[in-house]
Automatic annotation (TrEMBL):
FMN binds at residues 70-72, 100, 131, 197, 231, 278-280, 299-300. The lineage of its organism: Bacteria, Bacillati, Actinomycetota, Actinomycetes, Mycobacteriales. It comes from Mycobacterium paragordonae. Transmembrane segments: none annotated. Involved in the biosynthesis of isoprenoids. Catalyzes the 1,3-allylic rearrangement of the homoallylic substrate isopentenyl (IPP) to its allylic isomer, dimethylallyl diphosphate (DMAPP). NCBIfam families: IPP_isom_2 (TIGR02151). Belongs to the IPP isomerase type 2 family. Mg(2+) binds at residue 166. Homooctamer. Dimer of tetramers. Its EC number is 5.3.3.2. It is an enzyme of class 5 (isomerase). Its main location: cytoplasm. Substrate binds at residues 11-12, 100-102, 165. Residues 177-340 form the FMN-dependent dehydrogenase domain. This is Isopentenyl-diphosphate delta-isomerase.
Amino acid sequence: MTAQRRDMASRKLRHIDVCRDGDVTYHGVTTGLERFRLPYNGLTQTNLGDVDLSAEFLGVPLRAPVLVGAMTGGAELSGTINRNLATAAQRLGIGMMLGSQRVMLDSALGERAVPSFAVRDVAPDVLLVGNIGLSQFFKDAIPEINRALDRVGANVLAVHTNPLQEAMQDNGDTDFAGSLDRLHDLTPMLDYPVLLKEVGHGIGANAVADLLRLTGEPPVAAIDVAGAGGTSWSRVEQLVRYGELRYPDLADWGIPTAQALLEVRSALPRIPLVASGGIRTGMDAAKALALGADVVAIARPLLDPAIESADAATAWLQGFIDELRICLHGCGAADLPSLRKLGALPVT
Ligand SMILES: Cc1cc2nc3c(=O)[nH]c(=O)nc-3n(C[C@H](O)[C@H](O)[C@H](O)COP(=O)(O)O)c2cc1C
């Protein structure tokens, strides 16, 4: 194994360690969801047990509008995490994003990495989202990316754009010049729809304006705003690289999730939209859905339960979905379209 490959594998495991034990949440930035409240209705006419959370995302039905966020793959521990999360997703009828499949594109490591991403046997029905970085999204890699998605049985490819994370990383991919053109040119060459995501620093109005500049249409099928307020990847990378926070201002830089969501939804009223970044409770999810998201995604809070067992991951997610259901009940929304019609109110 070359030193570079060893680095890739050990960095993934360091990410997991730091995310479990480190202080990786934003300090000075919140999601902004606390600035909204759901309109509670003491005269709701709903029956809690009948509240319908069913949704559809990119053509795949979901029993609740929830995705397991993109986290991991490649190492043995990643395989355990992915299988436990996938088992939970199958039981609950929700979707799941895999972590970066970059390692699968490596000629030497790729084959060995496949089992850690292979979850279709335990999750035959879930919406499964593959993952690759925008900095690995090159024409030469497209056949390999298609093959990597085929091999895991993905429905969709998430392409993550993470300039701040990469800039904080030792030997990160810091050349994003031409990446927008590549998105336009290469997405039609894929056999899968593309969901563009950040990793927790946010996609907002400026990025959407850039996405639309070339043709007036986004070159992607869906967007995950992955905003600020939850896990800060600038913070994670600094802790991994220096063992301390050397650039605190950069660790707290990003577009709050609620703001990113409102900006993208206003520019693209119909695009399938994921709200993520600091989504921690069913109430956070309900507010994000009321503000225009189609589904929400949760990453870091699922790490510990996923390492423990499929039952622990299922219990965490079930509690989250139960709370979301109560939120709809409490504001008189029998289903997600009704929640969206009610909206969320700014706290004055
Ligand atoms: C351990 C870990 C690994 C991650 N790896 C990836 C990845 O490979 N690809 C990706 O697009 N996002 C990755 N993310 C980012 C998450 O998908 C998400 O965008 C971010 O953590 C913000 O969500 P959160 O506040 O719920 O954690 C990772 C997150 C965690 C916690």
